[in-house]
Amino acid sequence: MNENYAEKAYAAYRKISVNPFTKVTTTHLNVLYNILCRIRRDKAYRKALDEFPTDEGERLEVLIEKYFDGYNALHGVDIRETLTEFTDPDFAEGGFFILDTFRKAEDGTLVPHSPAEFRQGETAHVQATLYSAFSREPLRVPRLSAISLNDDAVSNTAEAEDCCAISFTVTLSRPGSVKFKVIPRDANGKNIPGLEIAYGGVIFSKDEILPTHKPPADLEEFWNGEIDRMLRVIPTDETVDAYTGSVIYGFDMASKNRHRIIPVDKDYLQKLRDNRQMAPKDSVLETHYIWDVNLKAPGPNPTTAYISVPRNAEDKSVPIHIIFDGYGVRCPSPCAYKDEIAVHCSHHGYELGHEDSSYYQILREEICTNYGRGNGKINAGYADIHDCYMTYLLLRDLQVIRYCVDPMYSSELTLLHDKWNGKIIISGSSMGGYQTVCIGALTALLKKKTPPFEVIRLSPSVPAFCNIAGPLDNRVPTYLTTYEEGMDYYDAALLAHLIDAPLCIPRIGLGDETCPPTGILAMYNSIPATVSKSVHFLQNSSHGYIPDTDVQRWYKY
């Protein structure tokens, strides 16, 4: 086997892996995915890559798998399920779409128009053009199929044959959105491997989209009571209380719901690597203190998080950055930022650093596979909102903030209160975006009861669980949740009116099938007008699909 194959594969990994998970594109991911596919089908290729010395000291296959694990943790999806094995012997080949939207002028001509600026009742004209990934020229295929679904519960299809582009129209009778996808097919009507699918959408009267339900009359009273309940649980209490509720948990976590702190050292980082978890280089320990922190919390599970403090920051100069991951169960990674105190929080409260297949995968497939979904399965329900998986999830998140801002508890974290400037940033994507919105709302209540702090930025990307009742009103549904009574206390769109901190939504995918744009905008429009806020729409983007950088179409407001 020519060693150039291994050099080329590793060079591609190094070039791609420097991208943050919020910026990596599907083209990048397909390159890595195809390396994995070839490793698994080509023994000589696997041997060459296994023997290739990486700077990280780990096999390239392991490095790529870890990169996917990190991406999946942020977005709450297994993106590998949507990627394609291409026919090129080395890396991805194929085609991509450019989506354009137009409105008809009075003289009948089509004028380019932002997909986020149509009014209800207008007709949006859409053109999807397929291009070659290599030549960047239009790519002709036997058939293009367009399928749309709108917030009037109306679905339409369009077909074009022997073409490189397809045109169709969408409309909506009320404020809301239309999502659509365009699929390249062969002469037999089958999807063509290697050609990307377009995931697009159009928004109508974006500023008038509101939640389907009004917030419960006692929503604020309920959460104030739950926060008071949390405040009675001392995060640094090393004793264990019996849990007698109905939430199902695993690995005997109730017996571990107490305070425990482990300094992260080189041996700990090596343990993470041995367990195939993402870990920074050992040199990070020269610039940061890092801890594996376990805090006592309401419910069966503790709060668990990695917390890092930059040693060389100026005193009182850096904010605390709370980071939440997407749906599912994975081990968060220790984050070490130069200009921030990083708190990477596990919203499930399970122990950190275990081997994935023997620990987190069991939780993903059993206890935590349906949490909060309202579908009648394990930990999915809301029959008792005082003893509910989602109540404890949000209280665990609040407990780590309460711990960090109060020197009575977190003085055990070396230099934290010397370096912290009193400000907090909260961010996350998908389910992490949901937590960002909800915790951003609930900190407005929490900060009245703790030492002072200021939330200076909320950054929820493609947030989940927004306007959960939307499908009851014919809104485009999500597979993620099914509405049931009690969910309104946890709906990000119904908590958003409490937000008093600046908020920016870094991405709404106009073709997002998991977190529909209508629900996110219902949340966004519920934020008080006095709060600084902005939103960024990305055309041809689903929940996990992000087109290549040079063909992205952003619309920012």
Shape: globular
The helix tally amounts to 13
Strands, total number: 18
Biggest sheet, spatial arrangement of strands: 9-10-11-13-12-14-15
Quote the distance from N terminus to C terminus.
Answer: 52 Å
Radius of gyration: 24 Å
Give the amount of beta strand, in percent: 15-25%
pLDDT under 50 segments (min length 5)? Answer: 88-92
Q: Level of helix content?
A: 25-40%
- Describe the largest sheet: 7 strands, mixed
Mean pLDDT: 93
The helix-and-strand class reads alpha+beta
List keywords for this structure.
four-stranded antiparallel β-sheet, alpha+beta, globular, seven-stranded mixed β-sheet
Question: If you had to describe this structure to a student in words, what would you say it looks like?
Answer:
The protein is α+β, with helices and mostly antiparallel strands and 557 residues long. Helices cover 26% and strands 24% of the residues. The protein has 13 helices and 18 strands. It has helices spanning 3-17, 26-41, 43-51, 60-75, 219-231, 266-274, 356-365, 389-405, 407-410, 416-419, 431-446, 492-495, 517-526; strands at residues 95-104, 110-112, 123-132, 141-150, 155-163, 165-171, 176-185, 198-204, 260-263, 288-295, 303-310, 318-324, 341-346, 420-429, 454-461, 503-509, 533-539, 553-556. The chain has a seven-stranded mixed sheet with strand order 9-10-11-13-12-14-15. The protein has a four-stranded antiparallel sheet with strand order 2-1-3-6, with no helix packed on it. Strand 14, helix 11 and strand 15 (454-461) form a beta-alpha-beta unit. The longest helix is centred in the last third of the chain and has 17 residues, at 389-405. The radius of gyration is 24 Å and the shape is globular. The N and C termini lie far apart (52 Å). The relative contact order is 0.12. The model is unreliable at 88-92 (pLDDT under 50).
